[in-house]
UniProtKB/TrEMBL annotation, chain A:
Part of the high-affinity ATP-driven potassium transport (or Kdp) system, which catalyzes the hydrolysis of ATP coupled with the electrogenic transport of potassium into the cytoplasm. This subunit binds the extracellular potassium ions and delivers the ions to the membrane domain of KdpB through an intramembrane tunnel. The chain crosses the membrane at residues 61-80, 87-109, 129-151, 172-194, 255-273, 280-299, 375-395, 416-435, 481-504, 524-545. Belongs to the KdpA family. InterPro entries: KdpA. It comes from the Bacteria. Its main location: membrane. The keyword Membrane applies. The system is composed of three essential subunits: KdpA, KdpB and KdpC. This is Potassium-transporting ATPase potassium-binding subunit. It is found in: Cell membrane. Keywords: Cell membrane, Ion transport, Membrane, Potassium, Potassium transport, Transmembrane, Transmembrane helix, Transport. It comes from Streptantibioticus ferralitis. It is a multi-pass membrane protein.
UniProtKB/TrEMBL annotation, chain B:
The keyword Acyltransferase does not apply. The chain crosses the membrane at residues 12-33. Belongs to the KdpC family. It comes from Streptantibioticus ferralitis. PANTHER family: POTASSIUM-TRANSPORTING ATPASE C CHAIN, POTASSIUM-TRANSPORTING ATPASE KDPC SUBUNIT. The system is composed of three essential subunits: KdpA, KdpB and KdpC. This is Potassium-transporting ATPase KdpC subunit. InterPro entries: KdpC (IPR003820). The gene is kdpC.
Length: 554, 206
């Protein structure tokens, strides 16, 4: 079989698998988020924690839950890393430095998983599994909880209640993330991923050299790392590392896992709002953007477009693994940057200007195709609100989406949401470029070096976590700046989403008339896709022109 | 004021208790259960696919190794050993404590020069024309631990290895052919040859 055919089949099999799980997983999540019944074990958890899981909360109370949980998580994780040398299974690792510990705590709590450390030489087993991996579960669940509150804003009327945060959080962990991760972790081990509690093993190699190999509970972390679109690798090389991703099958499975919840949530949305066609329209936009991006990155990498290194070497294999090759690497790169995952099986810094630039652009889109667990869906729903508003302006009617009027208050929240991330990215990159010491952290020079800084702030503010890893970002300045970018980039948008949810829930739905814009037809799919590209394009064009575009045209 | 402070404190205490509960479930019970099953049912894989030589571990078949001559005095790395199939370049020198890539950009002048130099060196080492050296032989992998090379690069090294070992080239070539792993299920990933496994098999070739 030739490369091209195999590459296509790989993509088709992925799309097929996602299509097969779209319905059952989407419906399951809708059930989990709407069922009035608690499981017995859930009741026990609520009792131990002392929370009222039956009390429907106002959006502000829901938000307080989200923020309180995040605050204690950051502090807990920070203390965990600082004290790791006193704990079990530290395998000789020293306490993590204060600035790095803050950055890492912010990173995992915000579902970003940006890593300024190398796992195999910084983190003990207990921090990895009982600190970092716990956030892989709960930060992913928080994202889904917030989108559930937003969906309830659309479905409920004349109420100020949007659900119960503690119940949403617990159910998503116990009924969605944990069972799937458990099964997939076993599948990963059966396919070659390691899962042990070995320390650092020294061996004498075949040729008489020495190697020290760090073991660890990798598979259990790998499964939730992808499923929860977290992306924080056990090892520095992340999913390029053979212990995390030993062969083409595990690679394919990891791509599937990091996409599956994001692509299934529109079904959950359609089911919950009582009109599945609304979900199909959203998933169509996601699929359109994802497929276009796969095509662009793959083509750029296959043909070494605008890369002197690629032409000299005869192929874009720098930073890529032989067992995956270009097709499976490009597919992973696109999927990880269009979700908030940020795991990598190849290193984007060495991609062609067009391919690497596209991974930055993917994140700039706000990670909505399909996006992170929950955050992707609320991101695209905000853009849908904007699209409906734009259409309303064209015909001079008060816009409405799913029966809810989009007035000044709603549009203010949507606008604030859209402005938050670009403000963090552009201001952050601007400041870094203005400081000589921070500029010097670039590995590559010129336009490509600027792309490294732009990538870092784009990745942090959008909670992606992948990197143009040449940038030496383990400095006090970058650890602090990127840590803050992650926290504001995660929680400010959540404030606006929940405020919007509260505002929508209070409304009495307006009846559908002949003048209502249908939001389930191809026309709306086109409109939404266009609005996304125009909004994002206009926001970031100058920055992209200085980085990847300048390099590509050089 | 005091009331709202107490409420906030209570709220955060509940959040902390919730976090502790999830730490026990997802941070302890879950990985321990997976490890238990993994160790019972898939212990070879779970422990890193270790290759042993008379009981002594000599490699993980997943982690690439260097196959160099002993370093000369005052140097830390030796030259490539002609008796072994050579792996891809590595940004971390095949040190598992330093996994990672070069992160050099697609138009980095230093990398372009390194690639040109490597092409010349590999061609001279293997006694082949520079144009026949494949891309994987002269570019560093993502992990720095890539155990695999392309079949093209493996076949290219056959004559040099056979000569250095005074073995018939046909036998070495057959060994390579036996070690070519096709795409998983016929269409996933890329064809590759595991250098660690291949060199291990080479030690048995007489």
């Amino acid at each position: 079989m030739n490369d091209t055919l195999a590459g296509w089949l790989q993509i088709i099999a992925l799309v097929g698998a996602l299509a097969l799980t779209f319905r059952p997983l989407g419906d399951h999540m809708a059930h989990v988020l709407t069922s009035p019944r608690h499981w017995r074990v859930e009741r026990l958890i609520y009792r131990v924690a002392g929370v009222h899981a039956d009390a429907d909360q106002q959006w502000s109370a829901y938000l307080r839950g989200v923020l309180a949980f995040a605050a204690v998580s950051v502090l807990f994780l920070y203390a965990f890393q600082r004290l790791q040398n006193h704990l079990l299974l530290s395998i000789g690792m020293k306490p993590v430095a204060p600035d790095l510990a803050f950055n890492t705590a912010a990173s995992f709590v915000t579902n970003t998983n940006w890593q300024n450390y190398s796992g195999e030489s910084t983190m003990g087993h207990l921090v990895q599994m009982a600190g970092l991996a716990v956030q892989n579960f709960v930060s992913a669940a928080v994202g889904i909880a917030v989108v559930a509150a937003l969906i309830r804003g659309f479905t409920r009327k004349k109420t100020d209640r949007v659900g119960n945060f503690w119940a949403d959080l617990t159910r998503i962990v116990l009924r969605v993330l944990l069972p799937i991760s458990f099964v997939m972790a076993i599948v990963l081990v059966a396919s070659g991923v390691i899962e042990n509690f070995h320390g650092i093993q020294s061996i004498t190699t075949i040729a008489g050299d020495h190697q020290s190999i760090t073991g660890g509970p990798v598979a259990s972390q790998e499964a939730i790392k992808e499923l929860g679109t977290n992306g924080g690798g056990f090892y520095n090389a992340n999913s390029a590392h053979p212990f995390e991703n030993p062969n083409p099958f595990t690679n394919w499975l990891e791509i599937y896992l990091l996409l599956v919840i994001g692509f299934s949530l529109p079904r959950t949305f359609g089911t919950m709002v009582g009109d599945r066609r609304q979900g199909y329209a959203i998933v169509a936009v996601m699929a359109l953007i994802w497929a276009s991006s796969v095509a662009i990155v793959t083509a750029n990498e296959l043909h070494s477009v605008s890369s002197s290194v690629g032409h000299t070497a005869g192929g874009m294999m720098e930073g890529k693994e032989q067992r995956f090759g270009i097709w499976a690497s490009a597919l992973f790169a696109v999927s990880t940057t269009l979700t908030s995952c940020g795991a990598v099986n190849s290193f984007h810094d060495s991609y062609t200007p067009g391919g690497g630039g596209m991974t930055i652009f993917n994140m700039m889109l706000g990670e909505i195709a399909p996006g992170g667990t929950g955050s992707g869906l609320y991101g695209i729903l905000i853009l849908a609100v904007v699209a409906v508003f734009v259409a309303g302006l064209m015909v001079g009617r008060t816009p409405e989406y799913l029966g809810k009027k989009l007035g000044a208050r709603e549009m203010k929240f949507a606008s604030l949401y859209i402005l938050t991330t670009p403000a963090i990215v552009l201001v952050g990159s601007g400041i870094a470029m203005a400081l000589p010491g921070e500029r010097a952290a670039m590995l590559n020079s010129g336009a490509h070096g600027f792309s490294e800084v732009l990538y870092a702030f784009t990745s942090a503010a959008n909670n992606n976590g992948s990197a143009f890893a040449g940038l030496s970002a383990d400095t006090v300045w970058y650890n602090t700046a990127l840590g803050l970018a992650m926290i504001f980039g995660r929680f400010l948008p959540m404030v606006f989403v929940l405020a919007l949810a509260g505002s929508l829930a209070r409304q009495q739905p307006v009846p559908v008339t002949a003048g209502t814009l249908p939001t389930h037809r191809p026309q709306f799919v086109g409109l939404l896709a266009a609005v996304i590209l125009i909004v994002v394009g206009l926001t970031y064009f100058p920055a992209l022109a200085l980085g990847p575009l300048a390099e590509g045209l050089h | 004021m005091a009331g709202s402070l107490a409420r906030t404190a209570r709220h955060h205490l509940a959040a902390l208790r919730m976090l502790v509960v999830f730490t026990v479930i997802t941070g302890l019970a879950y990985p321990l259960a997976v490890t238990g099953i993994a160790q019972l049912a898939f212990s070879h894989h779970a422990n890193g696919s270790v290759i042993r030589d008379g009981g002594r571990p000599v490699a993980s078949s997943l982690i690439g190794q260097k196959f160099n001559l002993p370093p000369p005095k005052g140097r830390t790395t030796g030259a490539p050993d002609p008796r072994w199939f050579q792996p891809r370049p590595s940004a971390g020198g095949y040190d598992p404590a330093k996994s990672g890539a070069s992160n050099l950009g697609p138009n980095n002048a230093g990398l372009a020069k390194a690639v040109t130099d490597r092409r010349a060196a590999v061609a001279a080492f293997d006694g082949v024309p520079p144009s026949s050296v494949p891309a994987d032989a002269i570019t560093a992998s993502g992990s720095g631990l890539d155990p695999d090379i392309s079949p093209a690069y493996a076949y290219e090294q056959v004559n040099r290895v056979a000569k250095a070992r005074a073995a018939p080239p046909s036998a070495v070539r057959k060994l390579v052919a036996d070690h070519v792993q096709g795409r998983t299920l016929g269409f996933l990933g890329q064809e590759h040859v595991n250098v660690v496994a291949l060199n291990r098999a080479l030690t048995a070739l007489k």
